[in-house]
Design a protein that fits this description.
CATH superfamily: Fumarylacetoacetase-like, C-terminal domain
CATH architecture: Alpha-Beta Complex
Radius of gyration: 16 Å
Strand order of the largest sheet: 2-1-3-4
Low-confidence stretches: none
Largest sheet: 4 strands, antiparallel
Number of helices: 2
Helix content: under 10%
CATH topology: Fumarylacetoacetate hydrolase, domain 2
Structural class: mainly beta
Distance between the termini: 32 Å
Mean pLDDT: 88
Number of strands: 4
Shape: globular
Number of domains: 1
Length: 152
């Protein structure tokens, strides 16, 4: 977010957006599946949600509603999609969230993930130590992470 957004209309929502970026929306499935409660507990682990490599301002993105999104795991494309298939578009998300909480400059709204998550595969595919994820969104950049075991 580029400035505080509170009770923003959908029509004015983009006036509050500082830009767009790539976020690796990782999930710790054991926390989500084997421990009762909300899905959110598997999203906030240390090192989860890497952002970048760039923040691209709205004027630099030709059509933010039509960008290819992809993820490769160990060199194989496992997720492929587009922002044009998002259930909720960015202006709606900014509007809707701002009805319940103030969005502050620097806040990030992670808008979703393309089809192909490991949990939905048959059999399910879970990340393991040494796996390499490479992901990107057209015009917003590419990032890469290697899965490491958490060291306390």
């Amino acid at each position: 977010m580029g400035k505080e957004a509170k009770y923003v209309s959908e029509e004015d929502a983009m006036d509050y957006v500082a830009g767009f970026c790539v976020v690796n929306d990782l999930s710790e499935r054991e926390y989500q599946i084997e421990r009762a409660g909300q899905w959110c507990k598997g999203k906030g682990c240390d090192t989860f949600g890497p952002v970048g490599p760039y923040l691209v301002t709205p004027d630099e993105v030709e059509d933010f509603d039509n960008l290819n999104i992809w993820l490769e795991l160990n060199g194989k494309k496992v997720q492929n999609g587009s922002t044009n298939t998002m259930v909720y578009k960015v202006p709606h998300l900014v509007h809707y969230i701002s009805q319940f909480m103030s969005l502050q400059p620097g806040d990030i709204i992670s808008t979703g993930t393309p089809p192909g998550v490991g949990l939905g595969m048959t059999p399910p595919l879970y990340l393991k130590e040494g796996d390499v994820m490479r992901l990107g969104i057209d015009g917003l950049g590419v990032q890469q992470q290697t899965v490491e075991r958490y060291k306390a």
